[in-house]
Amino acid sequence: MWEYTDKVKEHFLNPRNVGVIEDADGVGEVGSLACGDALTLYFKLDDQGRIKDAKFQTFGCASAIASSSALTEMIKGLTLEEAQKITNDDIAKFLGGLPKEKMHCSVMGFDALKHAVANYRGEKVKEKEGTIVCECFDVTDLEITRAVKENNLKAIEDVTNYTKAGGGCSKCHGKIQELIDEAWHHKKPKVKSNKKLTNVQKIKLIEETLEKVIRPSLKRDHGNIELVDVDGDLVSVKLHGSCAFCSKSPITLKNFVESKLKEYVSHDILVEEVKE
Amino acid sequence: MKLVYADNNATTQIDSIVLDEMLPFLKEYYGNPSSMYGLAEKSGTKIKEARQRVAALINASEDEIIFTSCGTESNNTAVHAALEKQPEKKHIITTRVEHPAIKSLCERLARNGYRVTFVPVDKKGNLDTQLLFKSITKDTAIVSVMWANNETGVLFPVQEIAEDVRKKGIVFHTDAVQAVGKIPVDVKSAGVDMLTLSGHKIHAPKGVAALYVRKGLPFASYLIGGHQERGRRGGTENVASIVALGKACQLAGSRLEVMNTKIRAMRDRLENELLEKIPNSAINGNRENRVPSTTNVGFNSIEGEAILLMLDQLGICASSGSACTSGSLEPSHVLRAMNVPFTSAHGSVRFSFSTYNEEKEVDYIVEKLPPIIARLRELSPFWKQ
Ligand SMILES: Cc1ncc(COP(=O)(O)O)c(C=O)c1O
Prior knowledge:
The structure holds two protein chains of two kinds. Chain A is of the alpha+beta class.
């Protein structure tokens, strides 16, 4: 059972401003059926450019409905500039807090408003900037980094709660971890290079990438990685500690280690795991 | 209206007869059954009686019953025993729709060097038994297939599978937690090697269960400790709960007929009336082949958690395969394995009855649910009349 505040329950059971504004000035749609939640937000401005009326339709759980209701209440009377300063955290605060598993519901309100404003201004909401990290839920690196910074997130699980990223196949957990690290200024080696490397350079670069990029992520799971051999583009590694058994083992290797080495060393790198 | 409890696949209330039977063992008869005095003997005798009662319900013999702490432990024990006793075999066959007590265990084993085949189901939740049979290899250590699905109630042809699997010399286990007490379960005629049942689904308390292990089947204990359960499960017996499980099994046997007649009719009526009153709704699962007490209904364009909370406001307890009830973000693995479309998978609700439920509760649900669905659809951007 979720622990919803009375305010969440109240806004869920008696949502304000449900419906459609036929002659809306701005309409924003986010989410989808597949995602499990979606929100369409409408607003109408008065002559002063303030939001005169706001309405919504939401498909989703209680907190998604309550967050939408809260948002429409919060933006009424504001200018678009003021309204856009509202963060998902403000929405959660308005509701007296949301369970952390449900924070992504408030993020949806924030996104819908952004879309509605863009719609009003006749801008196309820029196709998502950045690169998609979570393919299951279509979440980009920029969105993750923003959520991490705005909400002071430290763990993958928190990122999932806030953005949904990583909540599906979990293939992107390595990448999310990296974004968290970057956001909190764990240094990233500046070694990117696509020049032809000598073998010695290549091995050095592989070791550097292992040390600075890959090991820190594995160590969090109490694992480690050892470079066994480099034969042309074939890199043999051994996994140690709990990592060899951990949930990410097949993914760590194929999708994480290899993708990192491809990124930092050379596109042709292939990784294989050597067992004891 | 008092509480309408229609979530008996999640857990059940303790029967008052069961409670009366167990209470003395929480009060005056607190002796350790292993001890050497009269006080303890009483516990030992009652455990023996409980073992007979559990055995009787599933047509096993007394020494084939091991008491455990929960269905989850029984499932873990069964798989563990089969692997431990056949260390050379590295393949496990199970289904895509198992309870996490098998599913998560097998996923863990898959990461630890075992090969696991998760046999798929069709749109109605029926198991692809041909594919299961084809998956069997010399390397297969155990086949574990649930008897009845907890979310949809769909039954798997355990007898047919067990026969083929065991002919090939492979261990067969069934998680019958949702079958026992709802349909006749006979380990002999089904021909299973191991079977899991759990107390709290049949009006015993939570935290007690049993594993049936066929006489002669090589077995290794999972909880290693004292000589309890003839050395097959360490740990001082949970006497009161074991006594309760025995009584609950006895009662369950006597209520199977009611389950199959009165409760089945109630469930069917609930389904038919909901389908009739609520447009764009559908039953998830093969209606022809389910336990009599369970229905899983999908409602297009809305989300399950919202339905459950509104039902809760009216005193109706049900559950949902919706993502948002579990903290994960995708609909249940069972509905996904059945390829239930996203449009209704998120809005699926399970009602599960016990012999405690009454006709008037069906009336109440049928009265209260349609306006809730209509209200939530009004809120939904996907609902187009
Ligand atoms: C099919 C099935 N197997 C196993 C279990 C687990 O039983 P227990 O809760 O006793 O561990 C349940 C109950 O949730 C179940 O429905």
